[in-house]
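Dear Dr. H.,

I hope your travels went smoothly. While you were away I took the liberty of generating a structure for the chain from your last submission, since the lab meeting agenda had it listed for discussion. I wanted you to have the full record in hand beforehand rather than looking at slides cold. The sequence, exactly as received, is reproduced here:
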Amino acid sequence: RARHSERAWRAEQLTRGELVPVGHEELKELLRSHLAAQALEALLPVAAEAEAKEEGLQDVQCSTPTAKSASNALFLASPVRSASSVSPEGKKKSRGWLSGFRKKSSSDKGFQGTGADAPALAFAGSAASSTPAVAHPSIAASQCASATAEGVARQWASLQEAVQRLRDQRRESDLRCRALRASAVAEVERVEAQAAKTEDELTVRIAMERGRQAELSALAEEQRQLLAQLL
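The corresponding predicted structure, in token form, is as follows:
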């Protein structure tokens, strides 16, 4: 009966030989790593696509200036347009102001501009000083892309570390499982050998007991015959 139960246990162990026993914490780590790998697999294509879009937008913005900056540049670089955009009353006032200025500073040889150039230069200077400094959108896009890339790189490094740790734990559990399996097989073989030895010893003892019983039976029969002859 004990031999039959040992054989059944050995057959069950051989049937479940492909399974690896793991603890509760190891199972949680395996599930966490599996979910993290799935999330990373879903995140990387989206991050790559977003980074490609941002790089394309940055290239387009660097190659073509915005309409506002182009119009400001053209407006500042065109003295004729700025002069023509002034009303006739403004021209009269500016001429009067310029004639007075010439009378006051007739000895100034450094001033060589005409009456039409002076208001245009003054207006251009005021427009240039009043225009606010706007940051280029490509700088913000590049900063956002670099921050996203750094975040993805940190997540990738942490996931790689977790995967390596889980691989080490899995390798250790495999080695432990192999050792347990080898010890179980050796124990089963030892028990089977001991059971076979015990069975052989019992067979020999039974044969010896049967021989002794046969001798006793023959001796009893001989004594019975002697007793019959005496009677």
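Two observations you may find useful: Residues 2-230 form one domain. The chain has one domain: 2-230.

With kind regards,
E. W.
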